[in-house]
# Entry
Amino acid sequence: MPLFSGISLNIPDTDKPRVVIIGGGFGGLYAAHNLDSSKFQIVLFDKRNYHTFQPLLYQVATAGLQADAIAGPLRTTFKKKKNFFFRLLRVQKIDPDEKLVFTSSGSLHYDYLIIANGCRSNFYGDEMMEKFSFPMKSIPDALNLRSQLMQTFEMAGLVKDPAKQRDLLSIVIVGGGPTGVETAGALSELRKHVLPKDYPDVDFSNMHIHLVQSGNFLLAGMAEKSCKRAYADLTKMGVEVILNSKVSSYDGYTATLTNGQTIATSTLIWSAGVKGDVIPGLKPEWIDHNKLVVDNHCKVVGSDGIFALGDIAILRTDKYPNGLPGVAQPAIQMGTYVGKNLCKIQNNEPLKDFKYFDKGSLATIGKGKAVCDLPNKKAFGGLLAWMIWAFVHITFLVSFKNRVKVFINWVWNYLTYDTGNRLIIRPYIRTNDRVAEKIVKDNEYSS
Amino acid sequence: MPLFSGISLNIPDTDKPRVVIIGGGFGGLYAAHNLDSSKFQIVLFDKRNYHTFQPLLYQVATAGLQADAIAGPLRTTFKKKKNFFFRLLRVQKIDPDEKLVFTSSGSLHYDYLIIANGCRSNFYGDEMMEKFSFPMKSIPDALNLRSQLMQTFEMAGLVKDPAKQRDLLSIVIVGGGPTGVETAGALSELRKHVLPKDYPDVDFSNMHIHLVQSGNFLLAGMAEKSCKRAYADLTKMGVEVILNSKVSSYDGYTATLTNGQTIATSTLIWSAGVKGDVIPGLKPEWIDHNKLVVDNHCKVVGSDGIFALGDIAILRTDKYPNGLPGVAQPAIQMGTYVGKNLCKIQNNEPLKDFKYFDKGSLATIGKGKAVCDLPNKKAFGGLLAWMIWAFVHITFLVSFKNRVKVFINWVWNYLTYDTGNRLIIRPYIRTNDRVAEKIVKDNEYSS
# Structure
């Protein structure tokens, strides 16, 4: 008899209104923090038991940080919050008419629903790309990429032919937004400072880092000065930036670009786009471009008691006719706004409109190198920008322990250039690559 | 065309004698450290790219430490060592007549061979046990167990029936050696200090921790005073110690003991025994009880130029008629001895016999609770023993960075009782458990 029968959501009945939050990213986290436990029962659903600090995922992928430095268990985060219930599960469906959320462990009635489940990688229907490329949306994604990189370096040590070594070592990064730029910079620093010491038998001049961007600029959306500086810095660091081009196909071995170029690579990193992950059951008229259209109160337009936050929401304003940018700040501000407002809504008090406060944009390129756009669109770069970047990222990490871990790691890495997290703990095995798969199996280093 | 063709071991030819070391555990690590690079070419093979500090695996499993605090990349460890070559692979066969080592990436001639590939879990032929229990020999093992524990706690929150909650939460640890005792103690502290705060909806009085030991004493081999103290401390901490009994069968749901008792449990931890992992091709007459018989120079008796170290070697002495204990110190001392001696052997100089220096034994039970046997078999326990235990373990960690990480974690955990590594990053899915598997898949928290 299975041990796991008799499962229910096990949320106690309550006379308070129940708020169900879907997703423990920035939006859901700040909403839950700002909800008043004495007025509401708060239920948080997530498919992972931790919050991921996505802006630093690229450092986990490039072995600069250990995974748990940027992830915090959600239960621990809220252990002092009263009237709060976390459940690890995936939401399957929403019935907005009956106000029910359906999950793999049963259904639950809500009075208010906060949808903050974010986005997933968008491969625009390219199945080969989805199968063979490395996305960068989650901690398992980042660990898979790290494992792939380390295994590739090991394999390059077994290959004498420089052309083959080059094909093995070359990396293509698709998408020149912050993730692409930051990953390219981190890989370039690994190549220069860390890898040659670790792999004396590999010639890292054979490791080419290609960054492919569809538009005219890297970091599109930032001030032109920042875009240009990112391009100049990366180029100086030996990253081969290819503008105005896309990767039109990738078969696991060769990336073909729309400019006709082909690049042999076993590692293609996909940071080219995301799409909203709309849960089934919501009304089609609420959905636009895979996102939920919200009004100035972050309420899904036309719905009863449903709010949407962060990447899954589209809030059109005069300044942002296509919606707010898909970064942490809008999610944090929307979450805080909705969390604080529900009391007023419950009491039918008048509401102030949500106003997005642009705190500026930051992207780091390398040690002491970053670009910063201030809210007034003034831009600057270099060491000061990098220090601001580091300060802001440490500040927004969720727990004090995460902050300590990241800070110590950064100081260490800054002083030694030795990141030290280069362990292949769970080898990544690409399904199409029979030879690689066979080597891994023969070696049995998967345990 | 596959990227990974044309693979060879890529070890340069040399006019120096070549030493091949199999295994980067304590024995192989200390042998490589002590070999003179100016006199030998040193080649290290391991199936993992890191050294594992096995004595602290149980803290990784119980979420006290992150994995990379106790693992160090082997390439980084030896990056300053000249004439040293690391290769990530599994050795398939040895031909002692031709002095060849065969691997998945090609074969290599050796002048001296140091076999230090250690032991694996021994299930004594019980296939069900091997399939359903959680061993504790490697970092992936420890992470699987951690993931299983955290998932079980999550699931217990979904179950209202106290009997079912008890079945889910109960843990059986088989084997009362240091690993079993230390794991039981750590789980008991988690239950008391950490879990109730994280899982307010779970009644942890339903979590029973059973420690099953075949003999009369826990920590067999230590002084009787230490054995008794471990028993008394664990019992006081609420661990249900079952002496003079074995688990005779386990089907993934119920453990049946030789004393007739049955315990429903989804988590059975196997720390009951190991067996040597003898590589094919070695002469049968060299092998005894799955280990390689070595003489007082750690040389495999009857072989030409083959040495064996640590858990895979059996060195019988008057004091240890069944061989040295299977812990870190014999491996470290044998590795150091062989590494230093190869020069003398090469020059046909006379050798001193290897002498094992017993530095005593330590085991920790909980915060401020440990037992310590001094080399003279005097034993004591309590806070002082615990402080010595902590000091010794920090000292023998391989890298300075590992030491810093473990030290900071311990200070943190000591002060806060909050271990913080309770992330389910790669969910463990038990193959037999259709319901659990289905829940995990539905939830898609595997990504």
Remarks:
- The two ends of chain B are 29 Å apart (CA to CA).
- Chain B touches chain A through 80 residues (CB under 8 Å).
- Chain B is about 30% helix and 20% strand.
